[in-house]
């Protein structure tokens, strides 16, 4: 078996495709849905936080996209200044710069996986599978970095001890009650992750028998991939 066949996998014989069209369509359909979800997530918020305190009866809101933060950024930066926390804009500079292009690259990798009929397809969809968990992990790291490294010379540094903000659920920062939840963008990223895993199951069911037959054919000195009987 050639190295190209080992990487790209065997092609589907026309007779086999006619006999089992659904079997070979499912991986492509599921991967297509995954990349649509991932691409759509670019335009939607990934994360929200609300801060509640008596002096802010309507609350303060933050909304995080993959490449920017919106909401009451100025007001929260002013509060952060008094307790010695860095400005929100200083968080994740590299991630915000490359995030859009990274997601587009993942979409293209998922597209490429539809043409790979071997185990190498796993490597192409792996970034999409891991991405939503990596997003939350990176957010947790930055919030922990900001919360545990307060400026001791800030005006109100003694009023708040170092802390780790809650990235999902209810938390407390000084007199502020925080509520954080996932946005629709992150839900779509999780959907893309789940669909990619499901596509790998369909992919294995469809192409593993073809690949095994191709290996047996090459070992026996035969040419081509015999059809299932």
Key descriptive features of the protein:
single chain, 229 residues, alpha+beta, five-stranded antiparallel sheet, 7 helices, disordered C terminus
SSE series: HHHEEEHHHEEH
Helix % is: 55-70%
Please tell me what the overall shape is.
elongated
Structural class: alpha+beta
Which sheet architecture does the biggest sheet show?
A: 5 strands, antiparallel
Please compute the radius of gyration using only Cα atoms. Answer: 24 Å
- For the secondary structure, the number of strands is 5
Quote the distance from N terminus to C terminus. Answer: 22 Å
- Portion of residues in beta strands equals 5-15%
Low-confidence parts, pLDDT < 50 over ≥5 residues? 222-229
- Name the average pLDDT: 90
What's the total helix number? Answer: 7
Give the strand line-up of the largest sheet: 3-2-1-5-4
